[in-house]
């Protein structure tokens, strides 16, 4: 687990991100200071010497496209931030489609083409160490985005992943209490991919809350965060435990929650137990208003993407990045390397606060959520009358 180590000198002020994506983006623009032509990267030594005035090339490597956030939000937000902060810079982009070897080849091609900095969201954090090391050998700094790649990256930006797991689990406990499931409530845990260090953090945070509070009937780690595999795992759990004996499901993200819910419905469960999620996918929000999914985690991607852009510019120009409003902490990757990082706070979304989170931040509109299939839900009916 990538456990943050905080010291008074680097401790960050914690704050809720809901409703402040735009304001945070504006403030973050001030975080990179003096981005002129210099030598020496963020990690020190004979590092890069690019300049904002002349512009340079930034490589962006994202892990997959099954999760809608990467193509719909992360990529465009990052590209917009680079265009704003460094108008003469260009972004080279590739998506690995959840293929470790493909991401390795994409990174090698970018390095051959001469990118000045890599922003890397690793498919496999351990395997990505070879990408980091190859970049370092060419004096190209690496910013780890959303997942902490091994190998000693220059900077890392993500969300407080341990906290995500704890708040998911706490929301599930609260839902079980509201349904008076009792002390013997039995749940199923559908965790994320074993190659994603974030998944390990979510899992650890969830167990911190759930252990001793509920009975965990079955638990699975889900390769590639696959909704199809999650559905198969849930079918196995239903066969083992019995559909009527499952009081709740911890699902680490929205895509897998869709597979969980499909398995429950196929088993003839009409009154669905509370199911958690993450990423505030549009389909997840729609399942929430339909009563199929209990909650999701909203991660305000715009400030995350902008922070990554600022880190990339600082690293490429040899300037130090101070974390802006959020401040830097230190985290340790699985290989024992200490990395300066910004960790943002997650927000729990249930039906009660959809308007105050994903809608007020411009993540989705009422029209996008309230399509014909959901027009008769209480949420959409109230929205139409207001």
UniProtKB/TrEMBL annotation:
Superkingdom of origin: Bacteria
Domain Periplasmic binding protein, first and last residues per copy: 59-320
Signal peptide feature range: 1-31
Keywords: Signal
Chief place where the protein resides: other
Localisation: Cell envelope
Matching InterPro entries: Bact_Solute-Bind_Prot2 (IPR050555), Peripla_BP_I (IPR028082), SBP_2_dom (IPR025997)
Keyword Signal listed: yes
SUPFAM superfamilies according to UniProt: Periplasmic binding protein-like I
PROSITE patterns: PROKAR_LIPOPROTEIN (PS51257)
PANTHER family, per the entry: D-XYLOSE-BINDING PERIPLASMIC PROTEIN (PTHR30036:SF1)
Name of the protein this chain belongs to: Sugar ABC transporter substrate-binding protein
